[in-house]
Amino acid sequence: MNLPNSITMSRIACVPLLLWVLSPHSPIPAAHDGQQIAASALFILASITDGLDGYLARRRGQITTMGMLLDPLADKLLITSAYIALVLYDPRLVHVWIAVVVIGREFLVNGLRSIATAEGFTIEASDLGKLKTVIQIVSVVSAILDSHLPTHGLFADNPLHFSYLVIDFHFIAWLAIYWMAFVSIFSAGDYFIGFWKKIDHASEGRRKRSARFVLRRRKAAPAADETHAAP
Predict the structure, then answer these.
(1) Is the N or the C terminus of the chain less surrounded, counting Cβ atoms within 10 Å?
(2) Number of domains in the chain
(3) 7: Cα separation from own chain's centroid
């Protein structure tokens, strides 16, 4: 297994570890916010590997079929598991319908990609999809930190009283989660429109190829009949 695929596998391995850290049976005590900081750091580290494995695969010429399969799978597992865990971890902020939107969007995109592959074309990731990924990372991290940290952030009670360092994690998490839900729905619609245009073009091309094939068969049939009829 090459280096990019190993990095992708490490991201998949982070999924059960993240769920364990966020669970009530976490080995890290919730006191002093250790559980929240550890879970946030783990999720950020796993998210960084998302871009790193693809970059290394292109740079080193190690793009493989396994990597093309594992990379999107690792992304979907990390994001969906994080939101499912947050529904239980902080239900006042992350509602069930948020997780349904995230998971439903991934099912839709994966289904469209499968059909596109079967039809012989691909749909490139749009800027909306990349924006969605960034907002997802911000929303997950801020939601984890908001669950037990003071409402006004890490630096609200520091000895130096740097008031300008106050961070309202609850507001950031609320804004990021609802913005993420909106962008997810909008990007899914944009992806579906791009798919519809290409599938319509692919179907038209297939019909034209079929028509040409039938026409050639019809032209060849009289010639074969004449050959058989010749003395």
Answers:
(1) C
(2) 1
(3) 16
pLDDT of 103-153, one tens digit each?
998 888 888 888 887 777 777 767 777 788 889 899 998 888 886 664 544
Helix, strand, or coil (residue 124): coil
Q: From CA 216, how far away is CA 112, in angstroms rounded? A: 34
Q: Is 85 exposed, middle or buried (0-12, 13-18, 19+ CB in 10 A)?
A: buried
Element (H, E) at 47: helix 34-59
Both tokens of 160, joined, read: 């130096």
Domain housing 51: 3-229
Rounded Cα distance between 68 and 57, Å, is 10
CA distances from 110 to 9, 49, 96, 152 (A): 20, 21, 21, 39
Question: Which residues fall within 8 angstroms of residue 52, CB to CB, at 6 or more apart?
Answer: 7
Taking the C-alpha atoms of residue 221 and residue 104, their distance in angstroms, rounded to an integer, is 51
Task: Kindly report the CATH number assigned to the domain that includes residue 132.
Answer: 1.20.120.1760
In the 3-class helix/strand/coil scheme, how is 181-203 assigned residue by residue? Answer: HHHHHHHHHHHHHHHHHHHHHHH
> What is the separation, in whole angstroms, between the first and last Cα of the chain?
67
The model's pLDDT over 150-172, given as tens digits with 9 standing for 90+, comes to 454 444 444 444 444 456 778 88
Q: Please, what is the Cα angle at 98 between 95 and 102, to 5 degrees?
A: 150
DSSP label of 60: T
CB 108 within 8 A of CB 100: no
